[in-house]
Amino acid sequence: MNSTTTAVASKAIATLAGGCFWCLEAVYDGMKGVASVDSGYMGGSIANPTYEQVCGGDTGHAEVVRITFDPAVVSFKELLEVFFVIHDPTTLNRQGNDVGTQYRSAVFYHTPQQKTDAEEVIARLNGAKLWNGPIVTELAPATAFHMAEGYHQEYFARNPRQPYCQAVVAPKVAKFRKHFLEKLKKT
Predict the structure, then answer these.
(1) Which amino acids are annotated catalytic?
(2) Are strands 105-109 and 138-141 parallel, antiparallel or unpaired?
(3) Which long-range contacts (CB under 8 A, 24 or more apart) does 118-121 make?
């Protein structure tokens, strides 16, 4: 096995939906073990949807992030632990003022083990009664990932002073940093 094969073999993919993809991308960009985060769409009925089509709520797609990570550094369960802290998994098709099926909470699993891991984390968190209601996060097999338009990629990094970023994204990034200091990438 050469070094190229080893590098490829040490990567895994997670696809998560938890409201606006700008929030999730900004958080996971700062997490140890995460190689890249792409904003896009998954779970819908048409090929190559546009942002406008997805926002219309008729395609069935969710705004998602595709996280490429090194499971030797960060586990899928650890990604989920962060996921369930930085968004509200108890609201159906809503995150704050963002309303519609495109903003639903979902774990699109890529392997049977990811499905099992997600079921275990959800059961543990529901059992802990951390929220007033049960977790309604959708568990579904990963389908085609459609990359979002270029202006959505690294949106928070490029637009930190934009009002939505200041009001919605920045507090989620701060919450991640507060609760998961040991999981931050060293800069």
Answers:
(1) 20
(2) parallel
(3) 118/80, 120/77, 121/77, 121/80, 121/81, 121/84
Supply the pTM of this predicted model: 0.91
> What H or E segment, with its residue span, contains residue 31?
none
The 10s digit of each residue's pLDDT in 55-114 is 998 899 999 999 999 999 999 999 999 999 999 999 989 888 888 899 999 999 999 999
CA–CA separation, 48 vs 50, rounded Å? 7
Cα–Cα distance, 165 to 23 (Å, whole number) = 8
**Bridging pattern class, strands 62-69 and 94-95:** unpaired
pLDDT in tens, 171-182: 999 999 998 989
**What is the separation of C-alpha 150 from the centre of its chain, rounded to a whole number of angstroms?**
18
Helices (H), the chain: 3-9, 21-29, 51-55, 76-86, 112-128, 155-158, 163-164, 170-179
Q: How many helices (H) and strands (E) does the chain have?
A: 8, 8
Rounded-to-integer distance, Cα 145 and Cα 182, Å:
30
Sign for the CA dihedral angle at 173, 62, 54, 151 comes to positive
